Amino acid sequence: MRKRVQIALALLLVVIAGVIAWQVLREREPVYQGKTLDAWLQEYVAAEYQSPVTEETAATRGAATAIRRMGTNALPFLVQMVRAKDSPFKRFVTVVARNQSLIRVHLRTDKEIHNMAVVGFYVLGPIGRDAVPVLVELLNDHDPDVRLSAAGCLGNIGPDATVAVPALLSFLNDTNRIVRFAITVDLGRIHMDAELVVPILITNLTKSNAILPTTINVLGKFGQQAKPASLALLQFLNDENEYVRVEATNALLQIDPEAAAKAGVK
After folding, report:
1. Rounded-to-integer distance, Cα 15 and Cα 109, Å
2. DSSP percent split of the chain into helix, strand, coil, nearest 5
3. Where are the alpha helices (DSSP H) in 71-157?
4. Which residues contact 70 (CB under 8 A, 6 or more apart)?
5. How many Å separate Cα 155 from the centre of its chain?
């Protein structure tokens, strides 16, 4: 019993400290229609989980409109979210908090906060261009989750994040498959500097590439700018992997319709 009380008191102190710190942050946080950026982000994420991501619901439209109305005022707060890092003590307290029922409290992990930031930049799109320089800097952060989150934000900004392409390319040969997948997708979203991106993606058109369908898909996004990939793509039209076949077929139609026609692709 005494131990449970001690745990509860410790959690209470952490919650109080968190509330004070969060209140300081909220003083600078933009507000729209009486709700903070954080509240609108939560609403957007909650709505996404309730419906297919391809279906824009009234809830996501409303939250997206609010976040876009905040515009560039939201950027400092979103960047701060990308930088979030849990201390060992906070990780411990978070685990304890989620495994007890004495005090109802939800402490967000740094990964959850990072995800909210990526969502924020997804909603803002090109409005987030002013944050590109600092996000590029964060690609060098020692925390891998911060680096991956920064890359995701840059991808969501789109073509206006073109200056980030050289830095992102350095991650394409990362030993972590999840990192390679995420960076490849982000490069496709930025969709710029084909002369730099396409040659490297072509070198990854190998059977040993665990994210081969994604690599092919992103090459297709570059259209005729990826024409040097045509010959390599032909070998995957009859691949035993269905996903590889489908992506190779679609990409070849986008990149080189003439070569696709000769290969019998319709």
Report:
1. 14
2. 75, 0, 25
3. 75-82, 88-98, 110-124, 132-138, 144-157
4. 30, 32, 37, 40
5. 7
Domain boundaries, the chain: 2-192, 204-266
- Return d(Cα 26, Cα 37) in angstroms, integer: 9
Tens digit of each residue's pLDDT, the chain (266 residues): 555 555 555 555 555 455 444 444 445 789 999 999 999 999 998 887 665 555 566 668 889 999 999 999 999 999 999 999 876 666 555 555 555 555 555 567 888 899 999 999 999 999 999 999 999 999 999 999 999 999 999 999 999 999 999 999 999 988 899 999 999 999 999 999 999 999 999 999 999 999 999 999 999 999 999 999 999 999 999 999 999 999 999 999 999 999 999 988 87
Q: Could you confirm whether domain 204-266 is CATH 1.20.1500?
A: no
pTM of the model as a whole: 0.82
> Which one-letter DSSP state was computed for residue 55?
S
Helix axes 212-221, 177-190, angle to 10 degrees: 10
In this structure, how many other beta carbons lie within 10 angstroms of the beta carbon of residue 217? Answer: 20
Buried b (16+ CB within 10 A) or exposed e, 62-99: ebbebbeebeeebbebbbebbbbebeeebeebbeebee
CA 132 to chain CA centroid, Å, is 14
Burial of 122 (0-12, 13-18, 19+ CB in 10 A): buried
User: How far, in Å, CA of 213 to CA of 145, rounded?
Assistant: 24
